[in-house]
Design brief:
Layout lengths: L9 E4 L3 H10 L6 E4 L3 H22 L6 E4 L2 H4 L5 E4 L5 H14 L5 E4 L19 E6 L7 E6 L5 H10 L6 E5 L8 H17 L5 H12 L5 H8 L1 H14 L6 H11 L17
Parallel strand pairs: 1-2, 1-4, 2-3, 4-5, 5-6, 7-8
Antiparallel strand pairs: 6-7
Helix pairs in contact: 1-2, 6-10, 9-10
Length: 282
């Protein structure tokens, strides 16, 4: 495929926890960044987050902030985009609809990327006219954690992979090439086992979220443990991912999902709601 010119805007669709963080990283570059969401509240929260965090990143990189556009108009935002990144909730049917729409209205040479943490992009490319420009770019939790996993949909043109491996470090990101299609990619396959067993320990009454995190920190040498990380991602997102894994593997215990459902039903979604496994001041 013909590669796009890199002096064009980057577009991120979905202004939730991860979408706004992806936009933040691209805002350290020279080109315009467009963050799109149908929710005015999500866009306002994203603007507040980016305006607070961006000066700190720019001070480290010495870069000049480009223009950041917050919009609820998807079609207008896609004009001249070189990279379009989907960061909507982990709902497969919604991703299928969105990528079918992007296939029709995004610039012909724009790269279309999914940030899905559990669905390989091969699950939603069947009706697309140009699957060679589609792939997964799975970001963790930037800027605190800057790895991004790059995985082919099975039909991705290799030059797209090569381009992103070369370009993403310019935005303070560390790309890793997932060599074979993998549900959960690299990190999430390992993280899923840690996360699920941590939830089991608490669901069975063996320990508390705080004690699990503390023993994890002291033993592994990290700052923050599994429950703090789940709060950062959002417990509703974690639950969606776990439901997907359970659909693929019915032998998984339901206890972790039951515990997550209790928190989500109470509106305890993690940092974004002010409380999850921990309490957070606004």
């Amino acid at each position: 495929m013909k590669l796009p010119e890199l002096n064009r805007p980057a577009v991120i669709i979905g202004a939730g926890t991860i979408g706004r963080r992806i936009a933040l990283m691209f805002a350290t570059g020279k080109n315009e960044v467009r963050l799109v969401d149908h929710s005015p509240q999500a866009l306002a929260a994203s603007r507040n987050y980016i305006e607070k965090q961006l000066p700190l990143l720019l001070e480290k990189t010495g870069a000049t902030a480009p223009k950041i556009v917050y919009s609820d108009d998807l079609a207008a935002s896609l004009t001249d985009a070189w990279l379009v990144t989907e960061a909507i909730p982990e709902l497969l049917e919604e991703k299928k609809k969105l990528f079918a729409q992007l296939d029709r209205i995004a610039p012909d040479d724009a790269i279309l990327a999914s940030n899905s943490s559990s669905y390989p992009s091969s699950h939603f490319i069947h009706a697309l006219s140009k699957p060679e420009r589609v792939l997964n770019t799975h970001y963790l939790i930037p800027p605190e954690r800057n790895p991004v996993e790059i995985m082919s949909c099975g039909k991705t043109d290799p030059i797209v992979i090569e381009l992103l491996l070369a370009e993403l470090p310019k935005y303070g990101l560390a790309p890793f090439h997932v060599l074979e299609e993998s549900v959960g990619f690299i990190f999430n396959r390992i993280w899923a086992a840690i996360k699920r067993e941590s939830l089991m320990v608490v669901a069975e009454g063996v320990s508390t979220p705080a004690d699990v995190d503390r023993i994890f920190e002291l033993s592994v040498g990290t700052r923050g443990g599994p429950f703090r990380m789940m709060d950062m991602v959002g417990l509703d997102v974690v639950l969606d991912i776990e439901e997907h894994y359970a659909a693929l593997n019915p032998d998984l215990s339901e206890l972790p999902r039951k515990l997550l459902r209790e928190y989500v039903s109470q509106g305890r979604l993690g940092m974004k709601s002010g409380h999850g496994f921990y309490e957070y001041s606004k």
